[in-house]
């Protein structure tokens, strides 16, 4: 005899997909959830109810009428639960670290930062950033369901080792994942069931790209190319059909080591004239004839200087050179990857605002398909933290019930 499934059981089969739709803003109402999932209204309603019971989303009690001038029946609005669980998002960069609590929807609940010289051994700075996050959790009393950390290095999969953290002087093969796990345990963090929360580590540019694809300027792109420069160096990532392309071992898209000037500056990779040393904040400051100061960060100094390009010939020349170098690198990537959208972060985002015509022209002239590819500035702040949070949220997005099983209320 065939057993008839209950409404909650029918909804449970699509819980992960339903949560992802609410998380990325693609299902603001129950009717939209029904349409996006391609299921019956009863199944979508059961899924929404189950997610609400888990404390992940909120379902309005009373249905809301559709916008004026549109057709359709009133539908219950769906939103991320305002006091729902969070993940601890961490980021280590050249000038220090930042910790944040991030809820579903990419919502940064609270954040704390530290400006330090990152030591050659990572344990101290990882302990410091985890401790800052633990303080945030104690202050807010929110449930933590995972920890994600972004680092300025390619990270091997599945070992979780930093393989090229040149700018923070970590040795090749530094076990950042193991160090993070040890720091989580030392801090006494508790996740589902009272055990230490699951933890994850990823390359900062990869995670920024993931954040942009889910919540920012790259939303709904099929083949998204993301290129950025933060404090030092140039990073990039490719998101294909919603998933990061990380290669066979997590090391794909090291765009910073594309050569854009064969006679240029020596690069730590052994080459010369790489994007990493020709199109980052330090290179821009040097080309403009400025000596970088200890504060604020190199990125802040470079962005502030770029804003003077319309009234300072030396700065304008450096900005032109930066646009030419970046454009040449982007053109090569367009020829190889054929993206349908390019999003620029960090100093490159500011450059796009200051030099849109020149940058677009270089990409169009030096690539086969570049004329039709949109170049867009980053759409969200603190993309590295939001991306680190995405890493930690992924198990919940894949299987909410299993990930939250026995989690303390």
UniProtKB/TrEMBL annotation:
Domain of life, per the record? Bacteria
Q: Mind telling me which Pfam families this protein's record contains?
A: ROK
Q: Which InterPro entries match?
A: ATPase_NBD, ROK, WH-like_DNA-bd_sf
Q: Which family does it belong to?
A: Belongs to the ROK (NagC/XylR) family.
Kindly give the PANTHER family that the UniProt entry links to this protein.
BIFUNCTIONAL UDP-N-ACETYLGLUCOSAMINE 2-EPIMERASE_N-ACETYLMANNOSAMINE KINASE (PTHR18964:SF149), ROK (REPRESSOR, ORF, KINASE) FAMILY (PTHR18964)
> What's the name of the protein?
ROK family protein
